[in-house]
Amino acid sequence: MIVFATPALCVSQVCGPIVDMVSNIKKKYEERLDFIHIEVFENPKALMDQGRFSGQQVEAVKEWGLVTEPWVFVVDRNGLLSAKFEIFVTEAEIISAIEAVVN
Fold this sequence. Notes:
alpha+beta; 4-stranded mixed sheet; 4 helices
């Protein structure tokens, strides 16, 4: 699973809750699925310290063509995209997508 989110600087204000939800889901599935969190901005702490709410995006965000956040991607064992969720997603939807690739 790959999660693009910047909890402290999120425009949609759901990044924090999504990251928290994925962290809880990880506890159940970490033996069967890799979890990767990609921070959207280069050096978010410096941005916050400067009182800025946006800055230079990390290269992965540009490469994936993402213009919103958060994004949750579920990838199967062959590296193929199995499910993707933009902005808001429920825990049940994520678990259903995970179950489809781990079973």
